[in-house]
Amino acid sequence: MEQPALRGSAVLGAGLCLLLLIPLGAVTASEETVRTVTLEEAVASADRAPEMIAAHAGEQAAEAGVRVARAFPDAEISLTTNSINAREALSVLLPLPWPARGRRIEVATSNVLAAGRTRDAARASARQALRAAWFTLAAAEDRAQAVADRRSRAERSKSARTPSSRSPGRRAPRSTRRCGPLSGRWPR
Question: How far apart are CA 52 and CA 45, in angstroms?
Answer without folding.
Answer: 10
